[in-house]
Structure prediction request, 124 residues.
Amino acid sequence: MVTTPEVSAIRDADRIIGLLEHAELGEVDLIVNRIRADMVRRGDMMSLSDVSDILAVNIIGAVPDDENIVVSTNQGEPLVGMGSTAGQAYLDICRRLLGESVPMTNPGQAETFFARLCSILRRA
Prediction:
C-alpha cells in the first residue's frame, strides 16, 4: 500500500488496511510517498515512526518529495539511475521486495540524542 504522511491520507490508509486485513489477503506493507525531511524536522509533517505507530504496518520504503519525479515523468524517462534521492528510494524498495536486506533511510529523523532532544523541545 502507498500513502502520503498527511493526516487525511493516513486516515484513509488506516481504513484500507483494516479492509485488507479483514479480507485476510496476507501481510500489508507500506510505502510512504512524498515525504519532506525539512517538514519532518520542523514537526510540520509526520515522520516515518509516527506513520508506523499509527498504522501498525511494516514500512518498506519512503520516497522523498523530489522535483526530478515530475521532470522524469514529463520526459518519459525512468527516474532510477539518474542520481536522484527519489530514484534511489524506488530502487531500494524494489530490492526489499526482492528479499534483499537494504537499510532503511528515515528522512528528517534526528541523528543524535541532542538533535532529537532539540526537536522535542521545539514542539513543546
About this structure: DSSP finds six helices and three strands in the chain. The longest strand covers residues 29-35.
